[in-house]
Predict the structure.
Amino acid sequence: MPEAQRHARLHVTVRPSAATGFGERAFYVQYRAGGESGEIVKTRVWGISASQSQKALLMMRFDPKTAIATDTAIDAIKPEDFVRIMGCDLTFKRRANAFLGETSAGSCHLAAGDGRNLNVTERHDISANLWEVSDIGVDAQGQRVFGNIDGSPTKLRRASAFTCWAGVSQNDAPIVVNGISLHDQGGSANVVLGNQTIRLRLRNVEWPIGNNRPSLTLYLSQNNDDFAQIYAWTDPNANRIALNFNAFQASCTRNEIR
């Protein structure tokens, strides 16, 4: 796919908050560009309440009054530090084994950075392991200001957490580092083993085209190189994966879901 048409990589963390005043349940959401260690590009709170009249769930959007909200104490966030974005509620209804949420047609209006008034349509399709988001903003002349050019949704895959170890064999004594945290949506970590540094990356790979089967894949590279010297793969639902390359070993075990 041409680079200009590729969707930017986005890492989104959704955490429940015990804060009150946002609805029956509150969730703190943080968006990072490029991956888990990338720049925080936006934060918000989603408040969820049941609508008996619509037989649906209403998800209300609250944006921070400052550009980026701190996430150091998400249970202590207060409604007065946020602004509810009126007209942009999402109405969720169950559809098979997923939930589909949409804004009401013509109701969501936001101001662009240059002052233009934008008509925004937003759609969320949420299943157990996939969250698809389509959001498009157009100005009064019908010009698209944001949203994927081809109209396709941004696909956010649920990340599973793994705990890993890595080691290197030496003549005198092996060096082992435990407690390395990775997730299976491209999570990576640099691991110092004596005077050597390796990088581990874990991905649950799904191929958009071709006959390759989805695979949980563990990569090992050296010298801060993104090119993997070795990789191992297994079933995408496997609880454990390991590899052995020259003097290096590494293993990752899926964390229990609490």
The chain has two domains: 3-157, 161-254. The domain at 3-157 is CATH 2.40.128.590 (Lipocalin). The mean pLDDT is 90. The two ends are 38 Å apart (CA to CA).
